[in-house]
Design goal:
Low-confidence stretches: none
Strand content: 15-25%
Helix content: 25-40%
CATH architecture: 3-Layer(aba) Sandwich
Structural class: alpha/beta
Shape: globular
Order of helices and strands: EEEHEHEEEHEHEHEHHEEEHHH
């Protein structure tokens, strides 16, 4: 079974000390979903420039469709300066006034979203009013049964309580990590206990499922009243870029396959651990990790 998946938001070049790599959380999500057997599309916007043409060429090499990526005549393709901190954790400097800040929601984007089984979006691509309006208009085109996955992905100062609350109201699934949950607890005056805080969010915003990732300490998953806590696995980290996005892709596809939370957690953690062990956000995943997703094995 091949599910139709959309990553909605920013696509960019991560500029690392070792060179340039394609990135952006929605783009990484779409790549990993495709690697796990989904029919993936990225809805974003690039510049009419050499970096934009390089984006399209790289997506072609990765086997991803480019028909839902818009081209802006004047704004540049996005770049992000990345410095790696101890433990391989990235620190991002995200430049402003770039093409995806002008996302319009053109016909190909609307068609991709309307047909999707799941669509993933975050806060960063909503930092400008034009892109924010386009993203919300696109989300309203999704089918009622489609998963609307809000990967909160807090970056720099590009978020607010209002933005998060409005996004949660549009979502059916939440992905949050161990550095983001304390911020949600502060902004929404939630219980300090992690499980109680997540339960409060699920209740307040009628969320079907939540993935709370804790890095080396594993993940806590919730779906429709059921919880599963996975302690994580040991891995030698090259860097953590894209690991959360790979987890989100695996979590989303596991929900679509109807797997148990235990099965989803085991497979999603194995994939994100592998991504951590490799440099960059989009390493090629080994067949032993993708086989179950491609076959829909329970």
């Amino acid at each position: 079974m091949s599910f139709r998946i959309v990553g909605l938001g920013e696509i960019l070049w991560d500029v690392l000390p070792t060179g340039r790599q394609l990135g952006g959380a929605p783009a990484n999500f779409a790549y990993h979903a495709a690697a796990l057997g989904a029919e993936s599309r990225i809805v974003s916007r690039i510049g009419h420039d050499d970096l934009g043409r390089a984006v399209l060429a790289r997506l072609g090499e990765l086997g991803l469709a480019t028909d839902a990526i818009e081209t802006d005549p004047t704004a540049p393709t996005s770049t992000v300066t990345v410095a790696l901190e101890p433990g391989g954790h990235p620190h991002y400097t995200i430049h402003e006034n770039v093409a995806w800040d002008r996302l319009a929601g053109e016909p190909a984007a609307r068609a991709a979203v309307a047909a999707a089984d799941a669509i993933c979006f975050g806060t960063l691509a909503q930092r400008s009013e034009p892109a924010r309006n386009a993203i919300r208009s696109l989300l309203r085109l999704t089918r009622p049964e489609a998963l609307r996955v809000f990967d909160i992905n807090l970056r720099q100062h590009y978020f607010s309580r209002e933005l998060i609350a409005e996004s949660l109201a549009l979502a059916s699934v939440l992905k949050v990590n161990e550095t983001e949950l304390p911020e949600l607890i502060r902004l929404f005056t939630l219980p300090r206990d992690e499980r109680a805080a997540l339960a409060a969010l699920a209740s307040q915003f009628s969320l079907r499922a939540i993935a709370y990732t804790r890095g080396a300490s594993g993940a806590l998953l919730y779906a429709e009243g059921t919880w599963f806590d996975h302690p994580g696995v040991r891995v030698t980290v090259a860097d953590t870029i894209g690991a959360g996005d790979s987890f989100t892709a695996a979590f989303t596809l596991g929900l679509l396959h109807g797997w148990s939370l235990a099965t989803i957690a085991e497979r999603a953690i194995a994939i994100s651990a592998y991504v951590c062990s490799q440099p960059g956000a989009t390493p090629q995943l080994p067949p032993e990790l993708t086989m179950a997703f491609r076959g829909g094995t329970r």
